[in-house]
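Thread: Newbie trying to understand structure tokens

Hi all, I'm a second-year student working on a class project, and my supervisor (Dr. K.) asked me to get a predicted structure for one chain before our next meeting. I've only ever worked with sequences, so writing a 3D structure as a token string is new to me. If someone could post the tokens and maybe explain what I'm looking at, I'd be very grateful. Here's the chain:
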Amino acid sequence: MIEKFHPLDVDTAAMELPRRFTCPFCYEPHPLALMAAKHVQQYVASRDDWADELSAGKMLGVLVVRSEDSQLGYLAAFSGNLAGSVRHDFFVPPVYDLLDPQGEFKQGEAQITAINHELERMEQSPELADIRRRESLARQEQADEIGDFKALMARHKLERDERRQRGNLTPEDQEALLNQSRYEKAELKRIRQRHEARISEIVEEMDVFCRNMAAMRARRKAMSEALQERIFRLFVVSNARGERRDLVEVFKPLGTLPPAGAGECCAPRLLNYAYANHLLPVCMAEFWWGASPVGEVRHHGHFYPACRSKCKPILDFMLQGLDVEDNPLEQPMGDAGLDIIYDDRWLTVVNKPSGMLTVPGKALEDSLLTRYQAAHPEATGPIVVHRLDQETSGLVLFAKDKASHKALQQQFENHTISKRYIALLDGVVQQDEGVIDLPIRPDVDDRPRQRVDHEHGKPAVTRYRVLERRGPVTRIELEPLTGRTHQLRVHASHPLGLNCPIVGDRLYGTASSRLMLHAQSITFTHPATGRELSVEAPPEF
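---
Reply by user tm_fold:
Sure, no problem. This is what the structure looks like when written as tokens:
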């Protein structure tokens, strides 16, 4: 028996197995993955010694596999470390053990830590404190002496002016007064030079000390970068073809080193263990357990796609050789024509279906814009006035000429265009109406996800009104007063917002057939007629 293999008691005749492996970036968990996840959830819930740490939040994952003797089972993993370790009996081991005290990482980390301690010692050393004290004292003495001497010069100047006003000065007296002024100006210069020479000596001592610290910091940075690359060379992953690459090689086509934490998530661990033990991957799923991290939107027990910045390059390699489901977000839609709601010689309002990009993406050329351009060759200059998320349906405004585009864009910038959305929320919103004010910024480690950030986020404000409550679902009208990416999705799902994800939200809630968010109406001033124009299209849900 393979050590980390947990058998599943499944009637394969009654349950259809997946024909293709899970697309990790957009999926609904297969019943087998749900069954495996339930086992893992029961296990972690039984571990009282982990309760506090898990309640703070942890991503867990399952990989359903078939053994060489055709037995069905699953593997389990957690991201990062758990209870100060990356190795626990129930879970697969890491791709590389960063916490091994005899390992490359811990040895290199100890050397860097020694430099940190030496820098800390130098920064807090009596020698540095004495240099700073002597410099401060020297500058104060300089200021005091120069101040006193300038006051003396001012008194002498006043006396000279009074004597000149009284008159009766001989040429010798006038020369003496002039010589006094010349002498004092020269003496002031000598005082400055004497103090500056003394301060310069102290500053040179400081510079020598700081140069030594700067050299040590540069050495630490070089050691850290070299250690990081050596460690990523030790993260060696496999794919279904039996090919092996370290993470530096995996990320090389992107022209960058792997980001911090790459290779420590659930999916790479699960697949690497399966390949090493000749287990055939069948399906997988990752779910969040515990509280949501500050700023992020993670709901206890909900399933989430793999992160893109850390995991996508790795999984793109590791899944080679498997028959993987197509990512529905990267597939062109059918040939249905454009749903034109309003059209004139200056602009068009199109009802975009859920699942279609507004503009072409990196992986998919098909979009509302490309179809519109094909159908409306008369449209010239900038066309796109605003965008909707791929999974959001509803009204999109296109301009047909440069002047109309500029006028409409100006209305968006001035917040004079009004848009209203209809959404179904997974949960009951108690308050009938209100305003959500939560600043948002991109999650740089997991684009395109956004996160709430009160310090660095951009202002994001949404007005809402409950339309209907039907059991566990709320039908709601949402009016964005700002236009941030994923604003409505984050404001609906975040605990400080409505705490009710939009139904079908694979990023911030639970995936289903589609995202139940629709841009129902848009009101604006027509760029040619100057009249207010309001266009509506009800949702299909």
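A couple of things are worth pointing out once you decode it. Residues 232 and 248 are 6 Å apart (CA to CA). The first strand starts at residue 6 and ends at 7. Feel free to ask follow-ups in this thread.
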